[in-house]
Specification:
With 109 residues, the chain is mainly β. The protein is built from no helices and ten strands. The two termini are 16 Å apart.
Length: 109
């Protein structure tokens, strides 16, 4: 596979893991990054995975629950999900965008 050092959003692979969620995937050796767009009122059901996940809200707002702790996140807010911690989210009345980073890299995206 050729190295991808630069890309525009239109060049990135697109995933739609659930209705209302679109992810543009950036693959690296040690991490996976996704530009994640979420439609208004989208619900991301509680789930967990073995990778640590961090993220930053770039547009809109959402309610996020990590290991039972709940917070409303707005642009500039960040979050950290430890490995195997249950987490989920609910987008509020406007569409939301987040940048998600998983380490180590995800093979399923």
């Amino acid at each position: 596979m050729p190295k991808l050092y630069f890309a525009s959003p239109r060049d990135l692979p697109v995933k739609t893991p659930i209705p209302g969620m679109t992810q543009r995937i950036i693959r690296a050796d040690a991490a996976t990054v996704a530009i994640t767009d979420l439609a208004a009122t989208t619900v991301v059901e509680s789930h967990k995975h073995p990778m640590e996940q961090t993220g930053v809200i770039t547009k809109g707002s959402m309610v996020m629950v990590i290991a039972g702790e709940q917070r409303i996140l707005t642009p500039g807010d960040t979050y950290r999900v430890p490995p195997n911690a249950s987490h989920g989210a609910r987008v509020l009345e406007q569409a939301c965008q987040v940048i998600d980073i998983w380490a180590p890299a995800r093979d399923d995206l």
